[in-house]
Amino acid sequence: MFPLSRLSRRSALIGAAAAFLPAGSRGSSWPDDSTINWIVPFQAGGLTDAFARPVAQRVSESIGQTIVIDNRGGAGGTIAAAQAARAAPDGYTFLVAFTGLAYAPVIYPNAGFEFGRDFEPISALARTQSSLVVNPERLDVRSVREFVEHARRAPGSIDVASIGLGTTTHLAIDMLQKRAGIELHHVPYRGGAAALRDLLAGHVAATFMSIGTLTGYVNKGDLRVLAVAGRRRERLMPEVPTMEEAGFPDFRVVNWFGVFAPRRTGSPILDRMHAAIQQALAEPAIKRLWLEQAARVEPESRADFSRFVEREIDRWSRTARAANVQME
To answer: Which of 11, 52, 67, 80 is 20 to 30 A away from residue 92, measured at CA?
Structure first.
């Protein structure tokens, strides 16, 4: 056996030291032949999954490595988020997060993570404005003003569905009650599909939901959108006013979806993933899909997205505390 030369001994020492460096220090070699996992905190078929899959496919092609969508539902997404937070920061595990995770630690005392502390924001995938919608057969009102007047005449008589306890739709119902000084009957469901089904059947009178989900039913007259809970009117229904135009300034319920990495994932990896996602979102096919869902996403830097997430954590955490929602 030949002894190590001085140069080869030095190379071996450098290689051994590199093994102990954080993932970001080795970002130039990322990705290797390991599969990349995007953890989606819901089962397949929901909006989070629908926004993740087409982007993941294009990112996979861009970076030359397989991306697997790993659907892990339960506890409002907190189970998946806690698992992602504990993952190695090596660039092979990412979390596809949504608005509800920004304030989840407020309503889930045992969530097992702090969103602002345990994750590195990479890029938004989509943003969808929620809207106040009614079944006109069950509640024949044509404006937010009429909705509020009806609720004042008969407190607790309007059954309003949410997609689950502690969700943004639940908090939107609480916000409307507080801002309008009315009493509504909150009916929580397990997911948007069940809430929409019962709204169409007339078992509940109203809900908050994205216009992209409602367009076909509205066009047929089965449902009526009273207002959009966002900063701007929707392109799919430009005649529908915003909640601000209806008399409720700063009443915003915007659901966002984005990709995050475990804390301490290195900047070279984050930057490359961000660039690949931004490239995917710029593709005409993706833009068409997002338009059908009344979804928007603008080109933005990682720093811009990080600032947005920080503001959302603060705003929704305050809203959740005001609603006094606590989940086991």
So the answer is: 11
Q: Under 8 Å CB-to-CB from 314, ≥6 apart: which residues?
A: none
Distances (CA, A) of 175 to 98, 252, 279, 311: 20, 10, 37, 18
Structure tokens at 225: 């959108």
In terms of pLDDT, which residue wins out, 64 or 19?
A: 64
In angstroms, the CA 46 to CA 323 distance is 26
From residue 251, give the alpha-carbon distance in Å to each of 106, 180, 288. 21, 11, 28
What is the pLDDT of the chain when averaged over all its residues?
91
Q: Token pair 């509504």 is at which residue?
A: 184
**With contact defined as beta carbons under 8 Å apart, do 297 and 281 qualify?**
yes
Within 8 A by CB and 6+ apart from 311, the residues are none
Q: What is the pLDDT of residues 70-110, one digit of tens each?
A: 999 889 899 999 999 999 999 999 999 999 999 999 999 89
Which residues, listed in sequence order, are joined to residue 146 by a DSSP beta bridge? none
In whole angstroms, what is the distance from residue 174 CA to residue 301 CA? Answer: 33
> For the segment 296-309, what is each residue's pLDDT rounded down to a tens digit?
999 999 999 999 99
Beta partners for residue 97, in sequence order: 258
- What pLDDT, in 10s, does the model give residues 177-218? 999 999 999 999 988 889 999 999 999 999 999 999 999 999
